[in-house]
Design brief:
The protein is mainly beta and 397 residues long. The protein is 1% helix and 57% strand. It has one domain.
């Protein structure tokens, strides 16, 4: 298998106070990643991913416009190289063949499964994925106890590692017409040629794999005084692109399959347009500590889809825009109460926690395949977890 050598060769930060109004911080991190395949079966394979050198700059500007320490404007730019998953270093064309059999009797075997060494290719100019982040914040202290903030975040995800099929390129697909069962209109999809070759995965950085996140965040914070503190925030955001939100490194594919890229741009499944959060702590009489957390957020975007059988098997297609609909708004409210007792050198802590206090059963998943006789469109497929209560004790000595 590949042997990774991961090293951060240099990291440095340059702080700078220009005057009593302006602070400037500049930093950067240089990373070096190497990977190689040791000799196997008289082969030595040096894969081209083995020479990644990435520079990750950071720059932040802080402005106190009135010089009184009560107001602040912060601007920053950062680049973060993505940490690579271990599966990537396990790519190995020298992997073994596996055969699985069901034993019928002495000397009698029924074949169940057979695998061949994994055929793949890697772009000689494969780049390491990274994220560019721009952050802007305006804040103001109100009296002694309150801080109000307005933040803007922009994250652009770049150079996803993608997979295309270098054997079955687009000329191996034939356009055909199918009927969209939702609209009744004809749409063009693509069918494999029956004599198409076996697939070969080719790892590259396909520019069609894209994702961006933008958010505007309002925060109101009260520091601990008069026995309580809290933080309230509201976020309006958009998570858009063509690739799933489960990874900042890899994008599903294959990206040269023309069916895969049909109407696949829009709000992604991890998008929550509106999010309201509240966290608070109250130091109650007799030493009790009460805390609560609320999280209310828009549901997931989704769109109806349908399936049709092609030469490559059952294939899914969007019947409408992938973000045309959204699951309902959900509410999560948790509460905790705790009490400490000190007995000589021993500290006893008792606490009770309740999750989903109101036992709400908000919808988290809806059925969206058109034409399935066993399910209805928008049939509820998932709900919030029920109310959960826990009691606990901790002893420190």
């Amino acid at each position: 298998m590949l042997i990774p050598i991961i090293s951060s060769l240099f990291s440095h930060r340059i702080p700078g106070r220009i005057n009593r109004f302006i602070n400037l911080n500049i930093g950067f991190r240089f990373n070096y990643i190497d990977a190689y395949t040791p000799p196997q079966h008289q082969q030595t394979i040096k894969l081209p991913i083995a020479d990644w050198k990435t520079l990750e700059p950071r720059i932040a500007l802080g402005i106190d416009p009135f010089g009184d320490g009560k107001s602040g404007i912060k601007l920053s730019f950062s680049r973060y190289a993505t940490m690579m998953w271990t599966w990537f270093y396990g790519l190995n064309p020298n992997s073994s063949t596996m055969n699985m059999y069901y034993i019928l009797g002495p000397g009698q075997f029924y074949p169940l499964f057979s695998s061949s060494p994994y055929a793949f290719e890697i772009d000689s100019d494969l780049k390491r994925p990274y994220v560019n982040e721009v952050f802007v914040s305006v804040e103001r202290n109100i009296g002694k106890d309150f801080l109000i903030k307005l933040n803007f975040v922009d994250r652009q995800f770049k150079d996803f590692i993608t997979i295309i099929d270098s054997a079955r390129t687009e000329e191996w697909y034939n356009p055909i017409q199918v009927t969209n069962p939702l609209t009744g209109e004809a749409m063009t999809v693509y069918n494999w040629n029956m004599n198409s070759p076996d697939p070969v995965d080719y790892y590259n950085n396909d520019p069609r794999a894209e994702r961006s996140y933008r958010a505007l965040i309002f925060e109101l914070t009260k520091r601990m005084s008069h026995n309580f503190q809290f933080r309230l925030s509201y976020t309006y955001s958009q998570l858009k692109g063509t690739t799933s939100t489960s990874s900042s490194m890899k994008a599903t594919g294959p990206w040269n399959d023309p069916n895969y890229t049909i109407n696949n741009y829009g709000l992604l499944s991890g998008d929550h347009a509106h999010v309201i959060k509240f966290q608070g702590i109250y130091m109650a009489p007799l030493g009790f500590v009460l805390s609560t957390a609320y999280n209310g957020r828009s549901g997931y975007p989704y769109g109806y889809y349908f399936q049709t059988r092609l030469n490559q098997g059952m294939t899914s297609f969007p019947a409408e825009a992938p973000d045309k609909r959204r699951t309902p708004f959900t509410h999560y409210w948790d509460v905790r109460i705790a009490k400490d007792f000190n007995i000589k050198q021993v500290k006893l802590s008792f606490f009770a926690e309740v999750y989903n206090v109101l036992n709400l059963n908000g919808t988290t998943s809806l059925y969206s395949q058109v034409g399935n006789p066993y399910y209805e469109l928008d049939q509820v497929m998932g709900i919030q977890a029920p109310r959960i209560a826990m009691l606990g004790c901790r002893i420190v000595f």
